[in-house]
Every structure is written in C-alpha cells, then in structure tokens.
C-alpha cells in the first residue's frame, strides 16, 4: 500500500494527455518499444481516427525510484465536456492528478473545469506545462498555471510529451507528492463491517469470452480469483472466473489488493447486473450489510435522439448493441420509442452533440448497424390545463401550451481579451446572457447562461469561428427557465410527418419553417402529381413549397395502382436495394431523404 500511487492525467482537449501517457508507458517499460504507437491508450478505432480520447483508460505500471519499487496506476481521461462523466469516475478511483497545460495554448476552459473537479475529489494536483519542444520558455503558461494552483512558478513542471523531456522528473514528483491509496471507510462502523473487503466499480466492458468485466478500485481488503462476490446494488452474485490488471492489456492475477485497480471477470452476460458505481463485496458477507461505497451521481442526459433500425438491421440488433455500449459508456440513457413513420426505435439520452456523434459512429462501425436518427430534442416542462409534465418527444408537445420551461446551462467561456467584442456579438445570435467576467492572464473568463437548445444549435462552431479558434468553453446543466417555444410540424401532401416534428423557439419559427420546406423540396423526388410541402405551427401553415409533377424520366409507368409497385421496385433498384422505403402519406420519403433532412 505504501508503494502504490493512483493518479489521472487531466487537461483541456489536445493538450497532450494521451501522449504524456505514452512516455510514461515507455519510461516504466510497460509497453515495449516494438509495440509502442502514438496515443497507445486510445484503443478504440474511432479514438485513433479522430485523435481524441473518448474512454478513460487505466494502466498499471511499475517503476523504481531511489531503489524502491512502486506500483503506479494511471488513468488517462478524455478532455471534452461531453465525456465529463468518464473523468468524474476516474477521479474517484485515484488520489492524485497531473494537470497538463499546452504551452502553445495556455489555460483553456476545460483546464478550469477539470481542476475544479479534481479539487472537489480532494486530489493532490501537480501542474505541468507541456510541449516545451515548441515553446522552450513557456513563461506565460507557467505563470497562469501557477496562479490557478496557488503554487510558485518553480513548482510547475516543464515537459515535452513528444520528446520525453522532463517526464522522469514529473513522474518522480507524482511518487513523492501523491499520497498512497486511501481506505474506506474510516472507522465509523462496527468492527465486522469495517473489515469487509469492498471495491468500487468505476467502469465495465463486454468481453466475448469472459462476459462482463467490471473495472474496480479496491478500497478495503482484497478481491480474489475464484471467490464468490456480490454486487450490492443489483444483488447479483458471481464466482469470479478471473481477476487481473490492466497492463494495459488484461493480465490475470491471483488477487487485487487494497488500494489497487483491476478487473473482475463476472461471467455475466446480462448488462443490467453490473452497475457503474456499485460496490463489490465477498459473497460470504451476505446478510451483514456493510455500508456501500459512495458511488456516483448519475449524469443527466441533455439531448435526446431516437434511433430506428434501417436496412438489414433489426430492432433487436439495435437494442442489444446499445446495451453493450452502455457497459463502456455509462452516460448513455436508453428508452423505448416508437414512431408512426419509422416504427419501433430507441430514444437515447446523450450528454451532448459529440457524445451522439461518437455513439452513432460506434453503432455503425463496431456493430455494423444501419439506422435512422431523429432530430435532437431536449426535455421541456410544459404546463397545460393546470398540469405540468416533462416532454421529450416533439410530437407529444401540445399545440398551444400555457407555459413552457426549458433547461439552461451555465457556461464558462475563456477567450483572449482581443476577441471579447466578437464573443459578445454572439448575444445577438444566441440567447446568451453574460454575467460575471474576470481577467485570467491574457484571457477573459466570461460566465454566462444559455438555453440548452441554443447550445445544440451550433453554438460551438460559431464561438470557434468568431474567435478564430481561440475561445474555449465548458458548461454544466443549471436549472430551467420559462421560454416561448412551439411545435413545428411538417406536412407532405397534406399529412404530418411525425419524424420531422420539432420544438422551436418562437422567434426562430419562421426561419426554421422556411429552411425546412426548401430543403425538403430539393430532396424529395418528384411524384406523378404536384404536391405541397408545408410547415405548420399552432394549426397555421407558416411556410409552403410545391414539388412539380415528375417528368417521365424513369420510364412511363402509367397511373394505376399496380404500376406504382413496379415504379417502387425500379426506384428501389436505383437505391441499390440497400434501403428500406419509408412511406409518409402519399409520398415516399426515402431513408436518404430522412438522413439528409435530419442532418443538422
Ligand atoms: P489529449 O487530447 O490531451 O490526449 O492530447 P493528445 O495526447 O492526443 O495530443 C494532442 C496533439 O498534441 C497530438 O497531435 C500530439 O502529437 C501533440 N502533442 C502532445 N504532446 C506534445 C508535445 O510535447 N510536443 C508537441 N510538439 N506535440 C505534442
Ligand atoms: Mg487523449
């Protein structure tokens, strides 16, 4: 125990966390040179392709300092706000954090957010400025980081995660400064309870051979291979087929001791049995009811998007894939859903737009699925006839509610002073209210409030573009506010297409309506008769386009019912048979059209 150190690397996105982890893997000879590759811990294809970390990645390393051998458990973490639940779980499994700042960028919004989270978890924090191969004398970044940490400039480490310069010194400081693992609980329970071994499940994974793996941090006693354990929240028992360490591959061992991290092969196939944040105790203690470890506050999903099977994919495939993904992404929230036009689907709650994009790519790539997705929606609280309820489905939104409240976020924007005016100009485009501002080195920290719906509406891109990429931001949910929002329905040939229904802020209603019907006009194939595309709100048509009748370009199919089938067959062939046809009213809306129109 005395010679174990558990720590994380935290930073704003791209400041070099995963690259620093590479140097640590090398320095400790955890991964041999032949197998080394950049951002080694980013194991998902998607992480490698996009160059971002999505999952926390634990690794056990061994290292000798001054003749003493140490076990170092490191967790590399993602930087983006959408994955903050990954970070918060990693923080509860460790005692220390390296807070890394890119010398070329300086302190950015996630630097602040991550530091706050690490402090809230009571971690020992070591500051380091990275990329000194690019900026050999990073005075400003050092000063800014020292100010944040309340440290002296000499206490900030200078490293290059690329060349490895300064990395041994930084690791030595981790060993010196981060305390050995803490033990829970500290003497407030009866004797037997205290001695019950306990481990916290901080992550999980589905393994085709071993079943569900629970990633644990042991807070008391040891968990041994072959013993029977109980998961307290789900009351599930299993005989452990295997326990082991992350090196970073899964390597079996006899036991995971107090203060250590590792995995348990539960043998379970049923994802619901392994709950993130649950406490693992030995099965023998059944009945003594030791107090569980604190666990986690589950994150509130903010954006809801429905997935509908498409092509060769069945509903059950989609359901199973999402269950599997939930094991590695505890922030996913899945509920059944059904839609007139698209059939049975699943409504998935996400922590943000990137979280959605990553999840849908994983469904496509790791599970080979085809699906359609609805417009993103958020949860509104709606009052009608003196009752209030939460509405997540746009088509359930009443035509004329008495009052509507929408979720708000508290946002922190960090921007170089010269871009202040440009950033403030965003208040003309978005319902952004600016509150407190303060100087932070060369930067201004702007605190504000923004409706969540505005964040989804491209706030990210716009902020980046007005600030030439220099502004960064972080946010968290912060209550709700009254708003004026309405249901916008799209009618094709006189029939509403539920999948295209959206809730829109009143002052954007006209514009959204226009844009949508115009886009649909360009996307929908011509039919044999002229037809209308209309946008409707509060029972009124507020925008309209007409698709002219089709020219006889696909061959002459005549006008009777039988030929319609033939026409569809041909059309299908033209889509290379891969897509199922959607029928909405008299008009066929192909998956491709849905896909296009549902794009942001
Ligand atoms: P993360 O998002 O914090 O994990 O950052 P990554 O480790 O993925 O690094 C982001 C980018 O910065 C990558 O292109 C790295 O090659 C680069 N990078 C990281 N550390 C250094 C460094 O010390 N020097 C230089 N020149 N580039 C670095
Ligand atoms: Mg990374």
Describe the protein's architecture and organization.
By secondary structure, the protein is an alpha+beta fold. It contains 14 helices and 33 strands. Strands 11-10-16-7-8-15-12-13 form an eight-stranded antiparallel beta sheet. Strands 2-3-1-4-5-6 form a six-stranded mixed beta sheet, sandwiched between helices. Strands 21, 22, 23, 24, 25 and 26 form a six-stranded antiparallel beta sheet that branches. The two termini are 51 Å apart. The chain binds guanosine-5'-diphosphate (GDP) and magnesium ion. The site of magnesium ion has 3 residues, from helix 1.
**Tally of alpha and pi helices:** 14
If you compute it from the alpha carbons, what radius of gyration comes out, rounded to the nearest whole angstrom?
A: 27 Å
Helix percent band: 25-40%
Give the terminus-to-terminus CA distance: 51 Å
Q: Segments where pLDDT lies below 50 for 5+ residues? A: 186-192, 553-561, 576-586
Main sheet attributes: strand count, strand direction, barrel closure: 8 strands, antiparallel
The averaged pLDDT comes out at 87
Give the total of beta strands. Answer: 33
Coarse morphology: globular
* Main β-sheet, spatial strand arrangement: 11-10-16-7-8-15-12-13
Can you summarize this structure?
This protein has 600 residues and is α+β, with helices and mostly antiparallel strands. The strands form seven sheets. An eight-stranded antiparallel sheet has the order 11-10-16-7-8-15-12-13. The protein starts with a strand and ends with a helix.
């Amino acid at each position: 125990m005395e010679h174990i150190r558990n720590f994380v690397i935290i930073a704003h996105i791209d400041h070099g966390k995963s690259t620093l982890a590479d140097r640590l893997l090398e320095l400790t000879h955890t991964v041999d040179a032949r197998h080394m590759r950049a951002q080694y811990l980013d194991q998902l294809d998607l992480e490698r392709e996009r160059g971002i970390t999505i999952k926390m990645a634990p690794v056990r390393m061994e290292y000798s300092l001054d003749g003493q051998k140490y076990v170092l458990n490191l967790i590399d973490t993602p930087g983006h706000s959408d994955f903050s639940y990954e970070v918060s779980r990693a923080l509860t499994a460790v005692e220390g954090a390296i807070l890394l700042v890119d010398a070329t960028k300086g302190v950015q919004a996630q630097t602040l957010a991550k530091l706050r989270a690490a402090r809230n978890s009571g971690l020992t924090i070591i500051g380091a400025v990275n990329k000194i191969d690019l900026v050999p004398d990073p005075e400003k970044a050092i000063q800014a980081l020292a100010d944040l940490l309340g440290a002296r400039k000499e206490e900030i480490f200078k490293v290059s995660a690329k060349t490895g310069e300064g990395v041994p010194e930084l690791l030595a400081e981790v060993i010196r400064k981060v305390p050995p693992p803490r033990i829970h609980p500290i003497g407030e329970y009866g004797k037997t309870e205290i001695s019950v071994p306990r481990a916290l499940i901080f992550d999980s994974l589905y393994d085709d051979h071993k079943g569900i793996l629970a990633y644990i941090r042991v807070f008391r006693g040891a968990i041994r291979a072959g013993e029977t354990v109980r998961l307290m929240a789900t009351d599930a028992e299993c005989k452990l087929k295997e326990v082991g360490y992350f090196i970073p591959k899964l390597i079996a061992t006899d036991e995971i001791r107090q203060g250590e991290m590792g995995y348990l092969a539960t043998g379970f196939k049923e994802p619901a049995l392994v709950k993130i944040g649950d406490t693992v105790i030995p099965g023998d203690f059944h009945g003594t009811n030791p107090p569980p470890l604190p666990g986690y506050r589950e994150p509130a999903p903010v954006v809801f998007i429905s997935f509908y099977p498409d092509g060769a994919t069945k509903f059950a495939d989609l359901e199973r894939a999402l269950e599997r993904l939930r094991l590695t992404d505890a922030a996913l929230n899945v509920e059944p859903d059904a839609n007139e036009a698209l059939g049975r689907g699943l409504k998935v709650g996400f922590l943000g737009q990137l979280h959605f994009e990553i999840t849908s790519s994983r469904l496509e790539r790791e599970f080979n699925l085809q699906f359609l997705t609805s417009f993103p929606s958020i949860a509104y609280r709606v009052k009608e006839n003196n009752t209030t309820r939460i509405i997540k489905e746009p088509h359930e939104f009443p035509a004329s509610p008495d009052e509507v409240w929408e979720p708000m976020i508290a946002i922190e924007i960090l921007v170089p002073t010269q871009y202040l005016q440009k950033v403030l100009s965003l208040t003309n485009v978005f319902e952004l209210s600016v509150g407190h501002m303060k100087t932070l080195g060369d930067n201004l920290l702007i605190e504000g409030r923004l409706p969540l719906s505005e964040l989804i509406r491209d706030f990210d891109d716009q902020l980046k573009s007005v600030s030439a990429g220099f502004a960064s931001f972080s946010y968290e949910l912060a209550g709700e506010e009254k708003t004026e929002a309405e249901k916008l329905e799209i009618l094709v040939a006189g029939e509403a297409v539920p999948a295209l229904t959206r809730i829109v802020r009143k002052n954007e209603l006209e514009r959204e309506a226009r844009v949508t019907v115009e886009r649909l006009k360009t996307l929908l194939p011509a039919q044999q008769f002229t037809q209308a595309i209309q946008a409707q709100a509060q029972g009124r048509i507020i925008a309209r386009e007409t698709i002219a009748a089709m020219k006889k370009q696909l061959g002459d199919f005549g006008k009777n019912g039988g030929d319609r089938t033939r026409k569809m067959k041909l059309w299908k062939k033209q889509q290379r048979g891969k897509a199922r046809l959607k029928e909405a009213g008299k008009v066929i809306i192909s998956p491709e059209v849905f896909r296009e129109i549902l794009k942001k």
